[in-house]
Amino acid sequence: MGVLMSKKQQVEKVQKCSVVVSAFREGLKNQSSSVQAHNGAENAGDEALEQLDTEESGHKEDEGKPGPSSAQPASAPTREENKVNQEAWGRLRDGKGVEPEELKKAHQLTPPAFVRPKRQPNDDQPLQIELGQREQPVNDEMCEVCEVWTADDLFPCRTCTRVFHDGCLREIGYLRADALQEMRETAHTTTGWSCYYCDNVNLLLTEEEMYSLMETFKQCKIIPESCLVSDELLQYRHFVSKQLFEKDLTDEQEEEVLAQFAALDPEKKGQIEWSDFLYHETLSVLQKFRTENSLVRLLTAKERDRARAIFQSLDQDKDGVITGGESRWAQASWFHKISKESQSCNVSISHVGPISESSPASSSSDKSRDKAMEKYDNRPVTWDAFLRESAIYILAARPNSAAMHIRLPL
């Protein structure tokens, strides 16, 4: 009985083992199927990625091939931009660059945003500028407007280091046809040309100074952008005199106003342009409310170099001192332009001094110098004093206009 029971137990054990083995085999089957499914999913994912890469590469190849714009409208701007860039690099390799007219990007030829300066705490402190060390600033290489280099087709500013394409200036509308032609004729000469930044001396005023000036215009009923006749200028001067000194102009002062009107109207039109009137009032504000040291800080490196050149030409004995008469003559010389017949297109504007009718190149040089020496005493004027006294006249010579925005000292 014991043996039979033992066999029965063995049979049960065998059956249990069979069940366990079957379960184990079933588990292996399930595991292998899940692994295969997982591997299949991974393979499918890899295939999908490969397909995406293939499609992307296909799209890139298609972008490089010419085709109708309607088939791929999204890639059309990219193809156009690539074409412009390829042309730009091609012309750049040839030493020409890209002409402004060929630039199709609307955001490049936009008018500049002018920002008025702010007074700094150290504006009134003296600025040490050496006489014997020329600064010799180098002009920019790329156009200020389109930021493209085109070799010899750039026109420099005589005051700052900016350069411009004539096409860019025409596109942004900052120069009329006659002014554009004058720029082409004078930019590379000894006379030079001031860009729209430097030509507009009104940009030297701070927000507060400009607000005060505009309030005065409003009270005097001066209409911006309008021309002024002599009576309007006299009326304006009377109003300012009452505001500042609480009295009317004297007869001598009225004659001075009329003389200033004539200086602002060199072509004898009987009226003065708004820009000339605005520049004159701007310089008056600077002269009244800024110190000489502050004005010296407004001068550019080119202007300082030209001041050095004229001072050194007057300092014959090289002792660093000139006379008061010579200083006055130099200040007057900033306002005169030489005739176009005597201009040389081979002279760099970075190394020329102020030109006047009484300059060494003029036949009336000795006579004008003698008159200056007779009228003014021989007080000694050092380089630092000369630069401080001349700063307002150098700034007044920036505009391209032929008008005299400050009465000449001689």
TrEMBL record:
Keywords: Metal-binding, Zinc, Zinc-finger. Residues 44-55 have a biased composition (Acidic residues). Residues 302-337 form the EF-hand domain. Residues 68-77, 356-365 have a biased composition (Low complexity). Residues 27-125, 350-373 are annotated as: Disordered. It holds the Pfam family zf-RING_15. GO terms for molecular function: calcium ion binding; transcription corepressor activity; zinc ion binding. This is EF-hand domain-containing protein. Residues 56-65, 78-105 have a biased composition (Basic and acidic residues). The keyword RNA-binding does not apply. The keyword Metal-binding applies. InterPro entries: EF-hand-dom_pair, EF_hand_dom, KIAA1045_Zf_RING, Znf_FYVE_PHD, Znf_RING/FYVE/PHD. GO terms for cellular component: cytoplasm; nucleus.
